[in-house]
């Protein structure tokens, strides 16, 4: 597929801008949405070391549910929820089209440049358009190469791209399990209300299908942490390079230690939060009575999402 360099780079810039703007919206939502289990994890750790009071499973569910209800005000209204889904869709489409455009047009662009250049031109420094192409390829974790008939471009996914690809099915299943299926109005689910769809729902899954549920949530948190951290690093680097009037032409092949540190910290807090939410409820508590009253409806949600309950 042949595209003029100016047209190609203009399209790439537009897709990059769309991807970045939608990423800000989705990333903000992720931070708010994943806050409850992380806060519970902090409470559990503080309780374990004796800094805070005891934190049993009912306290953990109550604390997580309160934080989640605060977040729902911002992302689960009649206006913001469609905007959230639109942002997710825009981010997926723009990122996918950008990578597809790079993969499908690089060979023709390189071939055209080579055929129209002399031996002296082949040793000349790359133009501004070439720099834009290289920078865009670098943003996707691609390995930029010089234009020559004997060389070929290799587009290997970076950690940022790989974590984004992993997030697609995980987020899709998460929306299905926690939003779409519980909102079905047909029996036996009969549309769980917001008060019924609190962290008792998550706690039930951790008790009834512990390994699968914990693995799904841990995968979501780790992949999201990697994707947001590496993406934020790229946005900051791009902003600094634009202010300095320079372009970064060499890719960072490995994420910095900060990325792994943040991801490890988030994963550790999440594991602590899961440990606080997973224990059995006391049969004397109000929380247990509430869950028992809607247990059949909750169990059906998990079954329809493909989870086998013990």
UniProtKB/TrEMBL annotation:
<keyword id="KW-1133">Transmembrane helix</keyword>
<feature type="region of interest" description="Disordered">
    <location>
        <begin position="110"/>
        <end position="155"/>
    </location>
</feature>
<dbReference type="InterPro" id="IPR039960">
    <property type="entry name" value="MCP1"/>
</dbReference>
<dbReference type="GO" id="GO:0016020">
    <property type="term" value="C:membrane"/>
</dbReference>
<feature type="region of interest" description="Disordered">
    <location>
        <begin position="237"/>
        <end position="257"/>
    </location>
</feature>
<feature type="transmembrane region" description="Helical">
    <location>
        <begin position="214"/>
        <end position="237"/>
    </location>
</feature>
<feature type="domain" description="Mitochondrial adapter protein MCP1 transmembrane">
    <location>
        <begin position="169"/>
        <end position="250"/>
    </location>
</feature>
<feature type="transmembrane region" description="Helical">
    <location>
        <begin position="258"/>
        <end position="278"/>
    </location>
</feature>
<dbReference type="GO" id="GO:0055088">
    <property type="term" value="P:lipid homeostasis"/>
</dbReference>
<feature type="compositionally biased region" description="Low complexity">
    <location>
        <begin position="123"/>
        <end position="139"/>
    </location>
</feature>
<keyword id="KW-0472">Membrane</keyword>
<dbReference type="Pfam" id="PF07950">
    <property type="entry name" value="MCP1_TM"/>
</dbReference>
<dbReference type="InterPro" id="IPR012472">
    <property type="entry name" value="MCP1_TM"/>
</dbReference>
<feature type="transmembrane region" description="Helical">
    <location>
        <begin position="20"/>
        <end position="40"/>
    </location>
</feature>
<dbReference type="InterPro" id="IPR034804">
    <property type="entry name" value="SQR/QFR_C/D"/>
</dbReference>
<keyword id="KW-0812">Transmembrane</keyword>
<protein>
    <recommendedName>
        <fullName>Mitochondrial adapter protein MCP1 transmembrane domain-containing protein</fullName>
    </recommendedName>
</protein>
């Amino acid at each position: 597929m042949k595209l003029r360099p100016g047209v190609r780079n203009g399209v790439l810039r537009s897709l990059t801008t769309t991807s970045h703007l939608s990423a800000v919206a989705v990333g903000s939502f992720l931070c708010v949405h994943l806050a409850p289990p992380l806060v519970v994890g902090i409470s559990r750790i503080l309780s374990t070391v004796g800094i805070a009071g005891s934190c049993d499973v009912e306290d953990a569910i109550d604390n997580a549910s309160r934080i989640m209800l605060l977040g729902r005000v911002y992302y689960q209204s009649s206006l913001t929820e469609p905007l959230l889904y639109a942002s997710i869709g825009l981010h997926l489409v723009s990122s996918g089209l950008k990578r597809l455009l790079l993969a499908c047009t690089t060979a023709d662009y390189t071939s055209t440049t080579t055929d129209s250049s002399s031996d002296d031109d082949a040793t000349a420094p790359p133009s501004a358009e070439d720099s834009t192409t290289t920078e865009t390829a670098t943003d996707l974790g691609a390995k930029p190469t010089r234009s020559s008939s004997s060389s070929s471009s290799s587009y290997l996914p970076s950690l940022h791209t790989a974590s984004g690809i992993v997030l697609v099915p995980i987020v899709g299943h998460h929306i299905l399990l926690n939003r779409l299926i519980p909102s079905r109005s047909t029996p036996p689910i009969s549309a769980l209300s917001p008060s019924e769809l609190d962290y008792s729902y998550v706690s039930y899954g951790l008790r009834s299908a512990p390994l699968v549920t914990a693995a799904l949530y841990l995968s979501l948190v780790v992949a999201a942490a990697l994707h947001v951290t590496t993406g934020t690093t790229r946005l900051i680097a791009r902003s600094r390079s634009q202010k300095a009037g320079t372009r970064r032409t060499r890719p960072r092949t490995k994420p910095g230690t900060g990325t792994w540190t943040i991801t490890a910290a988030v994963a550790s807090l999440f594991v602590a939060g899961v440990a606080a939410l997973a224990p059995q409820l006391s049969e004397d508590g109000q929380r247990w009575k509430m869950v028992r009253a809607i247990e059949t409806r909750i169990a059906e949600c998990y079954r329809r999402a493909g989870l086998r309950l013990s």
